[in-house]
Amino acid sequence: MSTSTASDRAGRARSIYKRLRPEYPKTLSFLDFGTPWQLLVATVLAAQCTDERVNQVTPELFRRWPGPGELAGADREEVEAVIRSTGFYRQKAKNLQAAAEKIVAEHGGGLPPTMEEMVALPGVARKTANIVLSQALGVVEGIAVDTHVKRLAFRLDLTDSDKPDKIERDLCEAFERDIWAEINQLLIHHGRAVCVARTPKCSICQANDLCPKKGVTKSA
Length: 220
What we know:
This protein is an all-alpha fold and 220 residues long.
């Protein structure tokens, strides 16, 4: 259990942000999309799948069914065939078509702009909702916690939890609200490039002297 206070974490969070921001000036999405709906679809497909694989699959998916109206009326087996390589394709196809139907029926074909409405869509939890709301709609209601954010939050002693909802609350408390969307992307970029899962590259980490390295047993 950490002995860091909320004030300690807030101070560390400010310093981490200042260190990482110059290193990753273009904090763009790793998923290719042209509309909010396309980002929602890509994010759902990215569960238990690499972004690279999703980006290979979505061009054909969006060519055949560009919007929720088209996907809602598509043949389920055809959708499954297109997204099969992303894994869990049957459940993903089911959720995406159910979400498409709900969006068409209840929101006129456009994505709802609130967290409450987003998580009411089939297959959409807070992580997906946070990503779509912030990156596609400019609505920031929290910090998306993926595997990279979860790992870095713990190593940097910004949380003691392994539960995404609690980690999100801790991060939102540590970082100022106006950088929530940006810090999410910075942590993901840093987690991919430096603070990797098995052997973090601590020797080249810009936040090395700030990091308590919780749980780190081997580094490079």
